[in-house]
Amino acid sequence: MLCCDPAAAAMVLLLCLGFLPTVATCPPHCLCASDIISCSGCNLSTMPFGLPSYATRLDLSHNSIGALRVDWVSQPFHRLTTLILNRNSISQIEVASFTVTPHLLHLDLSSNQLTVLNSSIFTGLRELKELLLIGNQIFHIKPGAFSDVDSLERLYLSANRLIAFPLELCEEPKGPRNLTFLDLSYNRLSKVPIQSLLSLTHRASVYLQENPLLCDCSLVALLEYWTWKQYSPLVDFRGEYPCIDGAVRDINCTRHGVMYIPLQAQTYRVEPGETLTVQCPGLPLPVQEGLVVFWVTPRTTLNSSAGDPSARRSVLPNGTLEIQGALLEDSGTYGCVVARGRYYHPSESPEVRVLVGNSSIPSNFGLARRSSAEHFNTAFTTLASCVVSIILVLLYLYLTPCRCRETRGKGSRGCGGRAIILCSDPQEVESGQRRSNGKRVAFLEPQAEDSEIGVPKKPAMNLDHVSTEGILKNGSRTVERTNTYQNHVA
Ligand SMILES: *[C@@H]1O[C@H](CO)[C@@H](O)[C@H](O)[C@H]1NC(C)=O
Ligand SMILES: *[C@@H]1O[C@H](CO)[C@@H](O)[C@H](O)[C@H]1NC(C)=O
Ligand SMILES: *[C@@H]1O[C@H](CO)[C@@H](O)[C@H](O)[C@H]1NC(C)=O
Ligand SMILES: *[C@@H]1O[C@H](CO)[C@@H](O)[C@H](O)[C@H]1NC(C)=O
Ligand SMILES: *[C@@H]1O[C@H](CO)[C@@H](O)[C@H](O)[C@H]1NC(C)=O
Ligand SMILES: *[C@@H]1O[C@H](CO)[C@@H](O)[C@H](O)[C@H]1NC(C)=O
Ligand SMILES: *[C@@H]1O[C@H](CO)[C@@H](O)[C@H](O)[C@H]1NC(C)=O
């Protein structure tokens, strides 16, 4: 394998890629190519010494590193954007270990042995956008664990042992402000904060499938509302949530089984300064004892148990929303979230429109329903990034004058090997068994020993098993070039 003879392997690789070897800067066991360093699968138990600081991508996956210490590199990595530490044995991360990588965007700590995320564990990662912690044994997240990662957008926490929802992620002053993706599937959550989720899911996709969630009236309310909204994290994994149709009818949330829900979103118009009262659509009165009614407003989420009638906006015990002294910015779409005991038809509307003064219909109306435009957009950009990688590989296969040809006679297999790109998708990892195969795009170049240089060889391009979804959801971040190199040189 590669690691048995790293120096020769690196040399062949560098020759193949047309780089002059820069001998002094690449640690043993690692492959260094321009700005990528891979020390993957080398049985390292500590951080390799003398890693070159020019790297933008550092791959230390598939080793047996046990801890990350403050001094894991000797000088700061100012260019590093991607750090891959998955499949190690990391159980300890010293506070401030990441201050040496201030511009990191993607950090993968999946499949390690983390159990508790201590406060300030990610200090220094102010620009981090994506954090993967899939498949650890995390059961506790201490307050302040994410206090410094202000820019975090995607957080993968699936397949851990969490018993409590990391509330910090919902509270803006402390947590990441721009979180758009939170995966908490395959954990041990039995209760989730419905009110915070209703606020968070305005802007973020929250995945909760495969948790032992208790089917109570608040959860029923949430699931009914999400289903009506066609909220894709729920719709895509509907079968893996509790409270499916039958269960909803069995639990006793409302006195009357079926209730009338208006077919159109009702519009309420008030003048600025007036008091606005909005009845919860389709809620039979009197409200069952203990039933909490949530109102999702353009700014916050309110509930009927808060019991502060002096507040400007409040939900009365009978589920009616009251806003005193309406302001122009109160205009918008308001949803009344309460267990109604059945899944409602798309044409029914538990939402109302509120117009204050002569403001026109707010632009956010209807936006919250399945935002396919955004999905397409993401899909498109990630497809584009994958296509770019494919083109690079094709360029490499056809246009690079292969200098290894000379070495072929001397026992090296040279460039006749295979180039394989893996477009792996973290989302696919976490939902593993659902879409098991088909994440690889393989270019197999036959080992045609006698083909002429310059005559393009016909690569067998097999796209049959490519799951477009896998590719589409993949960003440029996880194109596994390492495998290309390893297969190539092996
Ligand atoms: C990995 O390293 C450990 C000691 O660090 C050694 O005992 C083991 O044999 C090594 N495994 C392989 C496959 O080289
Ligand atoms: C968190 O702190 C405890 C006690 O200081 C320590 O034992 C543990 O290893 C730390 N966790 C991590 C992931 O570093
Ligand atoms: C959040 O996103 C907005 C818009 O994309 C950006 O202007 C802002 O800087 C981001 N905030 C943080 C803390 O990254
Ligand atoms: C629901 O609760 C009422 C009393 O609150 C009770 O009479 C009724 O039998 C319950 N229904 C079910 C299905 O549990
Ligand atoms: C209702 O709102 C109050 C104030 O925002 C909050 O403290 C409470 O937890 C909420 N209740 C539920 C059931 O979400
Ligand atoms: C709800 O209660 C408030 C005051 O307690 C009352 O003014 C209002 O009419 C009630 N709404 C409905 C629909 O019964
Ligand atoms: C409301 O309409 C009146 C005239 O119809 C106009 O003068 C006024 O500026 C409008 N107010 C707002 C907030 O658009």
Automatic annotation (TrEMBL):
It comes from Nothobranchius furzeri (Turquoise killifish). This is Adhesion molecule with Ig like domain 2. Keywords: Disulfide bond, Leucine-rich repeat, Membrane, Repeat, Signal, Transmembrane, Transmembrane helix. Residues 1-25 form the signal peptide. The chain crosses the membrane at residues 379-399. The lineage of its organism: Eukaryota, Metazoa, Chordata, Craniata, Vertebrata. SUPFAM superfamilies: Immunoglobulin (SSF48726), L domain-like (SSF52058). Gene3D superfamilies: Immunoglobulins (2.60.40.10), Ribonuclease Inhibitor (3.80.10.10). Residues 262-353 form the Ig-like domain. It holds the Pfam family LRR_1.
